[in-house]
Design goal:
This protein is mostly helical. The chain has 3 helices and no strands.
Length: 72
């Protein structure tokens, strides 16, 4: 059964964009390499743990809800 990970994909996309913009803020016309923040890496780990059955649906939803409440 495929699990719905749309919520965490949006969080990962937002965090990844923040990392990209922070690294490429002052460079016009060039894209500088960048690394993902620990917060973004943690979100990716939560996604993988959820997909692999290491954490439950409730734990996954709680993590996403907590992130949304603390970052909006």
């Amino acid at each position: 059964m495929k699990k719905n990970v749309n919520a965490i994909d949006k969080i990962i996309a937002e965090l990844s964009m923040q990392c990209y913009l922070a690294a490429n803020r002052k460079i016009a016309g060039r894209v500088k390499s960048y690394t993902l923040s620990q917060e973004c890496l943690d979100a990716i780990e939560i996604k993988h743990d959820y997909q692999n059955g290491i954490i439950t649906d409730e734990e996954y939803k709680a993590w996403c809800l907590k992130w949304n409440l603390t970052h909006q």
